[in-house]
Design a protein that fits this description.
It is globular, with a radius of gyration of 17 Å. The chain has one domain: Alpha-Beta Complex (Maf protein), CATH 3.90.950.10. It has a seven-stranded mixed sheet. It has five helices and seven strands, in the order βαβαβαββββαα. One of its GO terms (cellular component) is cytosol. It holds the Pfam family Ham1p_like. GO terms for molecular function: dITP diphosphatase activity; ITP diphosphatase activity; metal ion binding; nucleotide binding; ribonucleoside triphosphate phosphatase activity; XTP diphosphatase activity.
Length: 202
């Protein structure tokens, strides 16, 4: 069964393909099928992921899967949330991981509550009008460090400290990170839903 991934991120495709291949699914990036990016006007991860999945499915006629993810900081009332990718631009910096980290550390300077969660929401549809989308959420809760630590990963990994490991995501080997990351959790939950609801795989 072929599933369109409502993303053009090659790394995300490889990560998810490894998991969903177990169900006999083949993921294809939407750009390979001539589909452009969807609008993401909403303020919640689930609404944006659903919009992306419906857009990709409507354009291709295929079942679709999409994710929306971001960082939710307790001290900021859950923000930046859906604006995570563009967080640095709010403070006059260019878009990018390093600037996002820089801006976050500046905004948290002197703040005692540094608790935060990386959140991933996956949505899968059998077709564009599917009234029962599958929704899976993964959350990795930790604390924001005062400076970047570690060489692995991307995004906020160097400042996301996980108390259970005593390390940041960027200090963990990739296989350990993937087993405990927000996206890894959401993907495993989605696999279980697909097995149950779509009767896929073993």
């Amino acid at each position: 069964m072929k599933l369109v991934l409502a993303s053009n991120n090659a790394g995300k495709l490889a990560e998810l393909q490894q998991l969903f291949g177990k169900l006999g699914l083949t993921l294809v990036r939407q750009s390979e099928l001539g589909v452009g990016e969807a609008e993401e006007p909403f303020r919640t991860f689930v609404e944006n992921a659903l919009a992306k999945a419906r857009h990709a499915s409507a354009a291709t006629g295929l079942p679709a899967i999409a994710d929306d993810a971001g960082l939710c900081v307790d001290a900021f009332g859950g923000l930046p949330g859906v604006d995570t990718a563009y967080y640095a631009t709010q403070f006059g910096y260019a878009k990018g991981d390093a600037n996002n980290v820089k801006a976050l550390l500046e905004q948290l300077r002197g703040e005692s509550n540094r608790r935060a969660a990386l959140v991933s929401t996956l949505v899968a549809l059998r077709h564009a009008e599917d009234p029962e989308p599958l929704v899976a959420v993964g959350r990795a809760v930790g604390e924001i460090t005062t400076e970047p630590v570690g060489e692995h990963g991307f995004g906020f990994d160097p400042v996301m400290f996980l108390p259970q490991f005593g390390k940041t995501f960027a200090q963990l080997p990739p296989e350990v990170k993937n087993a405990h990351s927000h996206r890894g959790q959401a993907a495993r939950a989605m696999l279980a839903l697909m097995r149950e609801r779509w009767a896929l795989g073993a």
